[in-house]
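Fold this complex.
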Amino acid sequence: MAAILDAKGLNKSFGAVTAAKDINVAVEQDSVVGLIGSNGAGKTTFINMVTGYLKPTSGAIHFDGRDITSLSPRQITQLGICRSFQIPQLFNTMTVHENLLVGVGIVAAAGKRWSSDNHTYADPSKAVDAMLDEFNLGAYRDRTAGLLPEGTRKLLDIAMAMVVRPRILLLDEPTSGVSADEKFVLMDMVMAAVKQHKVTVLFVEHDMDVVERYTHRVLAFYEGRIIADGEPTDVLNDVEVRRYVIGGHIAPAGAASHA
Amino acid sequence: MRIDRNSIAVVLVGVVLLALGPVLPSWAVSLLNVALCYGTVVLGMMLLMRTGIVSFGHGLYYCLGAYAAGLLDHFGKMPDMLLMVGAGAVTAGLVAAVLGLLLAKYRDIFFAMLSLAFSMILYGLLVKTASLGSTDGFNVAAKTVGGIVIAEDSVRIVVYSLAVVFATLSAFLLHQYLASHQGRLAGAIKDNELRVEYMGASVKAAVHRNYVISAVLAGIGGALMAVNIGHIDPEMTYWPQSGEFVFVAILSGTGSVFAPLGGALVFEAIRSFAYEYSPNTWQMVLGITMLLVMIFLPGGLWSLFTRKRGA
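Structure:
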């Protein structure tokens, strides 16, 4: 299958610090890719480069055959690459409904101008209600976003990224700050939504249970490089990954499910 | 267009003010006239504040609107009120469309000071331009409305009616804009510019658009004031004038399009009565008023209504 996202030879330096070193990744359509690595390994730098927040020092990123390396976050969003954030980026003084309505309004106002594949909304109010249902946010409809519990803020952050009906969704630590009970509920909901809308997903995650359960492929980052790339079980059992990313004391991937 | 309760209320208030015009005492008409002119300018300030930016230089557009109206009479020999207000709006809008390209990149104190700088440049130009009366300015006299000659004894009420119509129309249209997808971006930008960009909208374009709209409203307010007072001078773009608009905007609050109009009325009333009864310390009365509002009503006078509703 052809790659929807193709990053070639990506390097990113901040002065003497190298945050990304010769990253080569081709992501197939409809796949779910997990990005793992310790803090500072280069996962978020990669997401920031793909979404235009950071420009690579060298290398190129292609989306659906188009070079997006020099595009702004807004232009990349308009093409169909959206993201959520490690710290949810919400409109804190607005209600949950208004947060989503802003996004739906942006898409509705743009119509079909962004790209031929972009979705538009004939009835924004109904579209927001549908999204509230889809992400189980109906109970929080009129609550101020700044006062929501962290798990709900994460979910709203992801829902806001989905409002634009992306073709690729990048999630930066979707379950961080979410309780152990809630993280699978949250991920089930997100994965159901992305599956329904045929969205390719890349997500940064520290919880290996989540990675193993939801991904088709895992990229392991270490010191700005990709040290392993493959199926979850293979990558999570890789010697280097266990040494540098997971830590040797953790049970081998798949052990729990096979026991 | 969405006709909701507030839209209807704006129109109703306008109709009531129009109907009251002939029966109100002249001091009340004068007070309302000035308040409506100020209120129209502050509507634009409200839009900017909702976007998260404060202009300390909106005297620029207020003055441009007034001078555009005045020049139409002075040099163009077209003393028609509608044309004058139109000229004020267009001139302010065009200048803002150019200056806004630069200003939309800035935020906080940089935006405030840069906008102030532009208004002081205009002040400098006007005081040095003898053909425009230099520091004295010049008189403005509107003689027709839409081509219909105004009788001398009805000028006051016609000017008042025109101020009511333009203030009502401005408030109505601004309310519609704020409820639209484009208008809703104002609050979103104030909250989180990064997220707005990551949802595919241009923050710079939205700020620029709101800046131009606010300038048009200031231009209308300035032109109305020129017609109302019958005299214009460079003081209209001097910094205390811009500060006064910020003062009224903070006093009013930004919760509704009623707030700037009501706040401007309260401001004018306090100023008039303070000046009448305490001519040497009227600024102190205004200062104390602002202090009390900031301490007890940080959301402005409008929060009196929203508090009550929320209780």
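The interface with chain A takes residues 180-182, 184-185, 187-188, 190-192, 194-202 of chain B (CB under 8 Å).
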